[in-house]
Amino acid sequence: MLNIVLFGPPGAGKGTQSQKLIDTYNLIHLSTGDLLRSEIAAGTELGLRAKTLMDQGLLVPDEVVIGMIDSKLKENKQAGGFIFDGFPRTVPQAISLDTLLQENNTAISCMIALEVNEEELTKRLLLRGQTSGRPDDQDEVLVRKRVQEYNTKTAPVADFYAQQGKFHGVNGIGEIEDIFNETCRIIDGYLGQAK
Ligand code: AMP
């Protein structure tokens, strides 16, 4: 199986690259942000609770997103692999993901970290907010809060995968196609050894 963590701050291009990668490698895309927005749209209790935090640019509790990923893994037992987008966002989430994958006799193959500086991220997110309809993309204070959450809680996840020898940084500024090609080059290096 090929299991990729697509990592990076909000606005780094994870969603865009995920769409291209799922077509190329026939993977299932698991974005916790998308899953949470579906819960909000469906008006579930989980969605309502998550919305309060998301509207402040804060992370939702680990057990909520871990539970969602657990059910998606169970729903897709026959999949050839997954792209995890926006998950794991904390070290406890990364530890739980390792356990969940182990229970399915598989593991994370590699982490690709899209690297983009804060000024560029803020610019991109506010631009996306003009068309995405996402309230968390429309307010500069919220955008900066999300980047701050990333810096304090999520950035350490990169070290977690670096310690496992699975971390790969990719410059996330430039042409979408060039970033994609660089990402594919890294993934192709793992394909020969994929379980
Ligand atoms: P995203 O679409 O990945 O930018 O996520 C939007 C918002 O959903 C984030 O700002 C968080 O509030 C929440 N969220 C998404 N994924 C996670 C996660 N793995 N852990 C905690 N909160 C998350």
CATH H-level superfamily: P-loop containing nucleotide triphosphate hydrolases
Number of strands: 5
Rg is: 16 Å
Give the ligands present.
adenosine monophosphate
Question: Which secondary structure elements does this structure contain, and how are they paired or packed?
Answer:
Layout: E1 2-7, H1 14-25, E2 28-31, H2 32-41, H3 45-54, H4 62-75, E3 81-85, H5 91-103, E4 110-115, H6 118-132, H7 140-154, H8 156-163, E5 167-171, H9 176-191
Parallel strand pairs: 1-3, 1-4, 2-3, 4-5
Helix pairs in contact: 1-9, 2-3, 4-5, 6-7
Tag the structure with descriptive keywords.
13% strand, alpha/beta, globular, five-stranded parallel β-sheet, Rossmann fold, binds adenosine monophosphate, 58% helix, 195 residues
Concise summary:
With 195 residues, the protein is an alpha/beta fold.
Structure overview:
- By secondary structure, the protein is α/β, with parallel strands linked by helices.
- It has one domain (2-116, 154-194): 3-Layer(aba) Sandwich (Rossmann fold).
- The chain has 9 helices and 5 strands; from the N terminus they run βαβαααβαβαααβα.
- Adenosine monophosphate (AMP) binds at residues 10, 32-33, 36, 53-54, 57-60, 65, 86-87, 89, 93, 136, 146.
